Every structure is written in structure tokens, then in C-alpha cells.
Amino acid sequence: MTIVQDVNLLEEIKTYANTQGTNYPIVNSYNEWDPLEEVIVGVVEGATIPDLEVAVKATIPEDQIEYFQKNAGKKFPQEAINAAAKELEEFVNILEGEGITVRRPDKINQARSYGTQEWQSKGGLYQAMPRDLLIVIGDQIIESPLAWRSRYFEIFSFREMLKDYFKKGGKWVAAPKPELPDHFYRPEYVSTGNDDEYAINEFEPTFDAADFIRCGRDIFVQKSNVTNDFGIDWLARQIGDKFRVHKLKFTDSHPMHVDATFMPLAPGHLLLNPERATEIPSLFKSWNIMYSPKSTLPKSHPMYMSSSWVNMNILMLDEKRVVVERQEQPLIDLFKKNGFEPILCDFRNFYSFGGGFHCATVDVRRRGGLQSYV
Ligand code: DAV
């Protein structure tokens, strides 16, 4: 893994005014670890099997391809949804118990077809993973231009809260709505895991917000089967020259979302996926590098959309407290050994839908300002 390009590289700007102790804007989050005050947590009710689009096929586990092909547009098994929903409630209770304000999107029926003048989708997907849809960088909350047609209208179930944030002074921005024509996709593409080729091209900007990770003024991003250079350039220009955007490249044959690969935990501490991060990114050479143990999930556990590396997809409540899956003992031990305070929550049934605690959330407000950490 190496930084292949620095976007928006400007002269060094060290520390901005740290607003600690004063009032923050309603939308305020610069990194993954400042004390969390308000968070969006997804909902999984209504989760629907998406069409086997080119960029879906490029990212889901191969043993699910036939299932998606046969069942697109139908709901995922109700028992699986119910079990995941129960874990989300436990997660919300934990967050609220820690004094954090939790907002939830509207539950909408995704098992309904829709389309544009160019294409049709048998249904939507879910509202379970707000991390893909929205990114907060500083005082802006930004809607992503998603590359999956099955996620075209997903953001609508978050609009009530976005309107509310706007009314309370939040800066609300949406990236240009993509067209997603057939020629945007590359069905012929076969990944080697090490090339710079993906299932989408550069016709228009797209990204999933979960391909970005925030470390103060340094923002890290991977290109993937849903995030292209054009999308990265759009975001870099939108957030402006207070930030530097760095592209990272990992060894991953199904790249989509960097947060089960590369997870800065707190200043000086970086959690890496040992299979994908074969090198330490150069800016992190002086950091404490922690390699995530493999998930303890049994092979028989259904994983519809992702690998079991979602065990390292954790949420930091501050520089010490970390929400971890209850049964991931080796990872829990690693956190303790490195001075972190794990807070345990069942989440294996939620994993089945393709994400962990980081995926299931968007941190809208953390207590802290813009700083340099690397
Ligand atoms: O298998 O590493 C994780 C996806 C998180 N939204 C993976 C994908």
C-alpha cells in the first residue's frame, strides 16, 4: 500500500483554532475520534436484495451472486432483518447510555421498482449504512453520488434530519446526481487485486463516503468499484484547501469502502487489515500500528454483501472508548493491550448486511476542531 497521489497539496497549515470549550456548529466532525456528541444510526427494516448490477457483482462475495441474481427486488429473509434490527437497538441504547444523541432515518419500503429515462431498478437496498451516503468534513454534511442504481434514492430517508440540520445552521451539500448510464460500468473488468482498474470508469464523479477516512486536515481515500478519481477530485475541491486528500492503494480484489481495511483510531494509533495493508502508509510510519485479528465469525454465518473483515469496522466514542462486537475476543484483547476501553455490543447479525459499527453510523458532531495529526 502506498500513497499514489496527493490531491490539493498546499503549503503546510498546522493547527487551526481549536474550539474546545466553546459552542460547536450542529454539524462538526473532523476526525474519527474526538468526543462523540451526535450520531446517525441506520435502520435495516425493509432491506431488499439489489439487482446484480456490474458494480454490485464486483463487490459482493462470489457465493452470493446466484442468490442476488434469483432474488433481486425481494426482501432479505425476515428473520435475518429482525435479528440485525435487534442488534441495532442494542447499539443505540449503548450510545444513548453514553450520553450521545442518536438520530435514525425513516423506514421506507425498498421493495418497489423505480428508474430514470435510461434504466430501471427492481428495487432499492436499505437505509442501514449511512456511512456510505453522508460524510461530515468540518462543518459540512455532504451527500455522496453513489454508483449503485439500487441506492439512487436511499438518501431520501435521511432528508428530514438533513433539513433539520440545515435549519439549525448546518451546511448541507449534495454532490452532483450521477446519471449512471450503461457505459459508466465495465462488465468486462476482472480484478487482479493489485491494479488500478475498477468496475466503473471516469464518465462522471461517483463515490461512497465510506471510501474516505478523516484525520483532521488529512483525508484518506481509496479508489474502488464505487469511487473514481472524478468523485475524489469533486470532494477535494468541495472541502477546499484547509484539507489535503491522499489516495491510498491496498491489495484488495473487491474494493468498496476503506473502513474494513484502514482505521485510524486516535492520534498515534492505526488499525490495519493485515491481508490488504501490505505496507504502512508513509505518513503513519511513526504511529503505533495494530493489525486486526481475523473475525471469530463462523464460516457458516451468512454474509450477503461483504467479507468478515467488518470486525475491524469499529466506532470510536472518543480517543479511548471503542465499540466492538461482543464475540471478537482477539480484537477486544488487542484494544485492551493498547490502552483502549472496549464497549461490547452484539453485531454479528448486522454484519450479514455488509457492515460494522462504522458503516452503520455517521458522526454528525464531535467535540473538537481542525488539527494536523500526521
Ligand atoms: O469486505 O471489506 C466492507 C464494507 C464496509 N461497508 C469488506 C467490505
Task: Give, in spatial order, the strands making up the sheet with the most strands.
Answer: 1-11-10-9
Query: What is the alpha-carbon Rg in Å?
Result: 19 Å
Distance between the termini: 17 Å
What is the general shape? globular
Bound compounds, please?
A: delta-amino valeric acid
Question: Strand pairing plus helix content: what structural class?
Answer: alpha/beta
Sheet with the most strands?
Answer: 4 strands, mixed
- How much of the sequence is in beta strands? 15-25%
SSE string, helices as H and strands as E: EEHHHEEEHEEHEEEHEEEEEEHEHE
Unreliable stretches covering 5 or more consecutive residues: 9-21
**Helix content class:** 10-25%
Strand segment count = 18
Number of helical stretches of at least 4 residues: 8
Instruction: Output mean pLDDT.
Output: 94
Can you give a write-up of this model?
The chain has a four-stranded mixed sheet. A three-stranded mixed sheet has the order 3-2-18, with helices on one face. It has a three-stranded mixed sheet with strand order 6-7-8. The protein has 374 residues and is α/β, with parallel strands linked by helices. The chain is 18% helix and 21% strand. It has helices at 54-57, 65-71, 78-97, 130-133, 159-167, 229-239, 329-337, 348-351, and strands spanning 2-7, 36-41, 101-103, 114-115, 120-121, 134-137, 140-143, 171-174, 212-215, 218-222, 244-249, 262-266, 269-272, 288-291, 315-316, 321-325, 341-345, 361-366. Strand 7 (140-143), helix 5 and strand 8 (171-174) form a beta-alpha-beta unit. The structure holds delta-amino valeric acid (DAV).
